[in-house]
Amino acid sequence: MCGIIGYNGTDDAIPYLVEGIKNLEYRGYDSFGCAFDKGNSIVIKKDIGRVEDVINKYKLQNLHSNRGVFHTRWATTGSVTVENAHPIMDCTGRIAVAHNGIIENWTELKDSLHGHKFVSNTDTEVLSHLIEENMKGGNTVVDAVKTVFKKIKGSSSFVVLNRDSNELVAIKKGSPLVLGLAKNGIFISSDVPSFVKHTNRVIYLFDGDMAIIGKKHYKISNLISKKIKHNVSIANFSAKDADKGGYEHFMLKEIMEQPGLLKKLEMSDFGEILKIAPLLKTASGVYLVGAGTSFHAARLGARMFRENGINAIPVQGQDLITYKNVILPNDVFIIISQSGETADIITALPIIKANRKIGIINVEGSTLSRAVDILVSLNTGPEKSVASTKAFTLSAVYLTLIAAATAGTLENAISDLKLMNINMYNLLVPSVLAVIRSAAEKINRLDSIFFLGRDYNYIVAVEAALKMKEVAYIHAEAIDAATFKHGPIALVSDKTYAIAFVSGAIEKETLNNLQEVKARGCKIIGIANKPQDVFDIFIRTQDAGRFDFVMQAIIAQLLAYETARKKGLDIDHPKNLAKSVTTL
Ligand code: M6R
């Protein structure tokens, strides 16, 4: 995915766009580019590298314009080069296009364009030349964009800056675009945090929407459906929620926000949960669908539902298609997603078109949030660290509460949540943080680490291993502690480290498994609420009963963070990654 922000208004656009694009860097950070109006021409500046560096290189802060579009790229078609950075112009220098998505038929379209000079190796450039081609003979840029939109296959949202008109033209399919209605101008962006400092009045665009963005007015029409209503919404967070709040990294800020968010949850009315529970009780099957970290939340949820007699099946987005012959009309689907934009899930939606869908989603107005019948909004505020932390915890906690509601024990679960929130005060204390740092000191030079646990603890281990991989670049493999003796134990030596999660009913069995591993030389870092002889390093969690996973996950997130920090890595921007995965 990529990040796009444009502005058209009477204020100077450049400071807004400089600030805004930095806020979108979580969406991609291979290369940066911008296009803006200057007299009678469009100026383009772009380069590979991080947004801040390119902005400083061209001293963009010193330039002025009232209309422009900025782009931060996560390469899909075409490698990371200056030429492939967006925006990309047509042959005449009349239009510049910033694009987020993939044009599946771009080679075909490119072959159909004769006499055009291509300077990049991207699918995006096809848009620029097709628009140019369709403007020949006096057509407006709006007409040209409409025609081109109908020709392209796949999911593509893009913004066009046209030298000869006073507007920006934006069109959406797949990747998100949202308008921000400010006092002296209008924003178009991939995400609200990029402009929320200037306005919280937003309009989320739907697939097929084309927006013509003037300096004071906008016009939206839909090229697919006539029935869409475009309401102005008020963003449910402020500029303060979208910055680092004094922390060195977003990841740390977001980890540390969790106790406050859980406290806030304790005070909500749980209306949605009470609505959902009866649906699940009468369903033949409940599928919990997610990707990456959200899939791990789905696994935890499914385990809890099964405990309460519900036939729950956790499924990764891309695998949903493999269930097409067994899905029954009254199966219910719970979709878990931070971004609400994960392509693996969106692509699978047609096969569950007729089924009831519940969303547990963080980003308001996102594609998935609109595709579901009942939405549980995570309300965590923007999650900007590529490594998901607070969205995982909150989704899994919601699922725990929903599972309890299906068993008629929601009140007990809320009491447990309150108790956990009290115990949370003892979790992130200096002594525990010091042990996490010393554990990070021990493991940061390792090439490989095992993450062990059984049952619920194993699912937390899987999530913990993912965090370690993505931010600390250490090969981290989660294995069920009971499975370890069935083969993987052959890998253990006195150089091996395992991070073990111990709690709950299978504590005794887990400890037996850990003894077997330790007997073969493995060092064990135990994440548990009481010390055990088998642990070489003990990181204390607090007892939280059904919410033990929350305590464990927060410790694991911090351990991954501290390990990456020790290695001096760019924690909020791990290599090769982007925050939401909008490709298949
Ligand atoms: O936005 P989503 O929750 O749908 O994203 C799913 C995964 O791409 C995401 O959780 C990914 O695995 C994270 N980088 C993990 O930290």
Enumerate the strands of the largest sheet in spatial order, edge to edge or round the barrel.
3-2-4-1-10-9-11-14
Radius of gyration: 25 Å
What is the arithmetic mean of pLDDT?
95
Give the helix/strand class.
Answer: alpha/beta
Hetero ligands: 5-amino-5-deoxy-1-O-phosphono-D-mannitol
What CATH architecture of the largest domain do you see? 4-Layer Sandwich
How would you describe what is shown here?
- By secondary structure, the protein is of the alpha/beta class.
- The protein has three domains: 3-242, Glutamine Phosphoribosylpyrophosphate, subunit 1, domain 1; 244-425, Glucose-6-phosphate isomerase like protein, domain 1 (Rossmann fold, 3-Layer(aba) Sandwich), CATH 3.40.50.10490; 427-584, Rossmann fold, CATH 3.40.50.10490.
- Strands 3-2-4-1-10-9-11-14 form an eight-stranded antiparallel beta sheet, covered by helices on one side. A six-stranded antiparallel beta sheet has the order 5-6-7-8-12-13, covered by helices on one side.
- The longest helix is centred in the C-terminal third of the chain and has 19 residues, at 548-566.
- Bound molecules: 5-amino-5-deoxy-1-O-phosphono-D-mannitol.
- 5-amino-5-deoxy-1-O-phosphono-D-mannitol binds at residues 291-294, 337-339, 342, 386-388, 466, 470, 580-581.
